[in-house]
Structures are given as C-alpha cells and as structure tokens.
Design a protein that fits this description.
mainly beta; Immunoglobulin-like; five-stranded antiparallel sheet; 279 residues; 9% helix
C-alpha cells in the first residue's frame, strides 16, 4: 500500500511539472533595451532583453509608428527589422535605420522605437498564437570610444644572451572605458578590445660597446595574457652573439589599440613606451 502511494505521488508530481511546462508559451519583453548605433555609415543596432518561455517559434517583430530623428529635427529615419536571432531563451532583434540622410550626422540622432513580437507556441500539444504588448526602446548614434591604455607598470625582460636574442615587454593594460549614459539612457553595448599593434619608433645603442649592425625587430605583436594584460616580444638582430652584460640600448615603442562593438571598429588610441634593453 505504501509503495502504491509513493508511486501515485511521484506520478502526480511529474504530471504537475509537465503541465507547468506545457502551459507556458510566451515572450517576456519587460527588460527590452536597444544597443546604441555604433556606425553612422551602416546604422544597425540590436534590441536585447527579450526572453522566451516554453515552446515558442516563428517569431516576427512588428515596428509600430516610431519617432527617430536628428536633434534639430531636420531629418527623420525609419527603423526596419533585418532579422530575428535566437540564442537559447534569448531573442535578439537586429534592426537598421533607413532614410535620406545616411551616413547619420555624427552624434545627432535620437529617438524611440515601438515594437511588439508575434509568434507561434505549443501548449499541451496545441498550436497557439502569441502577441506581446507593445514596448518602447530608445536609440542614439554614439561613436565607439577610444580605448584606455596604461603603461605605468611595464616591465622589460633581459636578453638571455648567446644566440637567443629575444626579450619580452609585459604589463600593458588596454581596456574599454566605462560608457556614460546618453539622455539618461544607459549605453549597454558590449565593447571589446579589437586590435593592439606595436610599432618601433626608435632604437639606439652604443656601437663601441655592443658591436655594429644591430637592429631591433618585433618578434610577436602584442598578445593578451591570462591576467588581462598585454605583452609583446622583440629580437635584436645583426652582429654576433650577445653575452650577458654586453648589450644595453634604448627604444621607444608605440602601442596602438582599437575597440570593437559587433562588426564596427572604433578609432585608435596610441601611447609611446620608452624601454631600456639589456643583456
């Protein structure tokens, strides 16, 4: 008898779980936000914060009358949906502005976009139609900022000597700055470091002590380390082997970096690093 009660209880719990799952088919839009527009030439942006509950498919975004214009009111733009992307339970609406005055005037476009989503769902094996309430998101065209580059903690390895004339420079910090809000709307773009490039500006050493014909070359462009800092590798070419204590030189290295938001790369920032090279 006890075994039968346990079995019935387990079946009821399982049926309750199934019913809760099967009775859910919805799209939650209360956390919807739009990424700011990074490119004035191709004014694309993405609406995020949309989440699916239950078995939902065939999602379509509907654009309702919206107001997107330049700050001075001279030009208006229409938001168009390019595609819908599903990433797990998340729904991303990829959009673009269209109008006569494109590229957009720099940092001059603001507005609100009203959307709703329609979809098909499955509840207890039955197909149902889903339509969300209308919701608003704010857009603005804001350029990608320049990265912050810090070189105060840079260290330089010694050349090992002999025929191995490599050395590394460590401790370069490259990061995206905190993005400020625009008109009280948070900038939610995920801006990441795209490229970090090194250039040798100058290289000098005492030929009488270290021999003639030596030159400095980049052995490996800047690379990111596990601790988040960047390093780069160099090599002293020319002349004979370098013995310990035989070589001392000076160089100025320029590090240039850019940030990226999705497919748009922002402007570069550069910083020079004076280094002392020793064997």
């Amino acid at each position: 008898m006890a075994t039968l009660i346990v079995l019935i209880t387990s079946c009821l719990l399982f049926a309750g779980q199934l019913s809760a799952q099967e009775l859910t088919a919805d799209i939650l839009v209360r956390d919807a936000v739009a990424e700011f527009i990074s490119s004035d030439d191709v004014p694309r942006f993405v609406v995020r914060g949309l989440r699916v509950q239950g078995e939902v498919d065939s999602i379509v975004a509907v654009v309702h009358p919206s107001a997107v214009r330049t700050i001075d009111g001279a030009f208006r733009y229409k938001p168009h949906v390019e595609r819908i992307e599903r990433v797990g339970d998340a729904v991303l609406v990829h959009m673009i502005l269209v109008g006569k005055n494109i590229p957009l005037p720099e940092e001059s476009v603001r507005g609100g976009i009203r959307l709703s989503l329609r979809a098909k769902g499955t509840v207890r094996g039955q197909r149902v139609s889903i339509e969300t309430p209308r919701f608003d998101v704010s857009v603005a065209n804001v350029p990608i900022p320049k990265p912050a580059i810090a070189v105060a903690d840079v260290t330089v390895d010694k050349i090992l000597g002999g025929r191995d004339r490599h050395f590394s420079v460590h401790g370069i910090y490259v990061r995206a700055p905190i993005l400020p809000p625009v008109d009280d709307v948070d900038d939610i773009r995920e801006v990441v470091v795209d490229t970090v490039v090194a250039t040798i500006i100058s290289f000098t050493y005492d030929e009488a002590v270290s021999g003639k014909g030596r030159k400095l070359v980049i052995a490996r462009q800047p690379y990111r380390r596990e601790d988040g800092t960047w390093s780069m590798d160099f090599r002293v070419d020319g002349g004979g082997p370098l013995r310990s204590g035989m070589f001392q030189g000076n160089a100025i290295i320029e590090v240039s970096a850019q940030l990226r938001h999705r497919n748009t790369v922002g402007p570069a920032r550069s910083k020079t690093i004076p280094i002392v090279i020793m064997s």
